[in-house]
Specification:
Nuclear transport factor 2 family protein; seven-stranded mixed β-sheet; NTF2-like_dom_sf; 3 helices; globular; alpha/beta
Length: 123
């Protein structure tokens, strides 16, 4: 998979964490996901009717199409929240813009992610 991440100062641990989580989800790398989230982590793809818990995540990711390219164009963090957005190109030829919004357990710089909401819009 080709991955491009926007240039940034590297001074925001939470911004780095939301980018790293997005990359891990894109690669379907559950071990990497687990380094960024709590055990009670939940993920929701906005528009789908279910919330995925961490123990269901591997099975859910298997059903998703492979990603050929991931470009993170923007990322922000403040307080207990962070987001990153960009473009994903799937192996079926479809291109989507995305926004991954996460909430941390607290405002500490090493806080783990407790939930993520991902928005996809066909480009």
């Amino acid at each position: 998979m080709k991955i491009e991440v926007m240039f940034h100062c590297g001074n925001s641990p939470k911004m780095e964490r939301v980018i790293d989580l997005t990359i891990a989800l894109s690669k379907k790398d559950i071990d990497a996901v687990k380094t960024h989230v709590r055990e009670d982590f939940t993920w929701r793809i906005v528009g789908e009717n279910h919330i995925v818990k961490l123990d269901q995540l591997s099975q859910t990711l298997i059903t998703k199409p492979q990603i050929l390219e991931l470009t993170v164009e923007n990322a922000l963090s403040h307080g207990k929240g962070a987001m990153c957005e960009g473009v994903i190109i799937f192996d079926n030829g479809l291109t989507y813009v995305f926004c991954n919004v996460v909430q941390f357990v607290n405002t500490a710089s090493d806080a783990l992610i407790k939930e993520a909401h991902t928005y996809f819009i066909k480009a």
